[in-house]
Amino acid sequence: IEDWVLKSAEVITVVSNPLRDELVRKGLPEERVLVNPNCVDPDRFDPDRYTDDEINALKKEIGIPEGAIVVGFIGTFSPWHGVEVLAEAIPIALQSNPRLHFLLIGAGPLFDEIRERLKTAGVLDRVTMTGLVAQEEAPKYLMCSDFFLSPHVPNPDGTPFFGSPTKLFEYMALGKGIIASDLDQLGEVLTHEENALLVQPGNAKMLADAIGKLCDDRGLAEKLGSAARELALREYTWKAHVGRIMERLYSLKNKP
Description:
By secondary structure, the protein is of the alpha/beta class. The chain is 46% helix and 14% strand. Helix 4 packs parallel to helix 5, helix 4 crosses helix 9 and helix 7 crosses helix 10.
């Protein structure tokens, strides 16, 4: 049924190059397969949506100390999201940055293990782990952060990283600094030192060093965040996403 649907469709949209390559290997014409990454709703993920008082009240509610520099992560606590690397990097980063506090939003199969590792390392008091939050509350929680992390790692079986992490585009739209793994689509969307800091996937020391760099240079974090938001609003809204689908469909239908 899947093969019949793919062969019958005039346009097939996929979120990453590895998924496109898989379909082309199946014999589908490349011109009918549109690589169209995930995107973001810029109205929901608008940095001006919440007041400072609202954000400060939420920080107090979830135990973030006043005056802390907050590093945020949202996602599933599973291997490919890089939470194990994050658990290794957090104690390193905290050694030289006493004002740092980490905000980890989400849940998953590795949640308890990561919490225990941070407790064993003696840093759990400087980490807020919220568990799951309602989807509509995610932007507000993320706005408690000063910059964001996307520490994805390669697939353990060696296959290409086929994901298009939605959180990447949510981070971008919120206009704060981003530290991300230089891994497939993340490294294609973001440019090192232009709109993000890119680090080697799985390298906890590099991740910790990048966290320290943004912690020490708030101007750089603001510059990267502003450039990332500009890119998100220009290319990675859902309106732009649908526009690319329609453009490809019309171009094929009008092809001689």
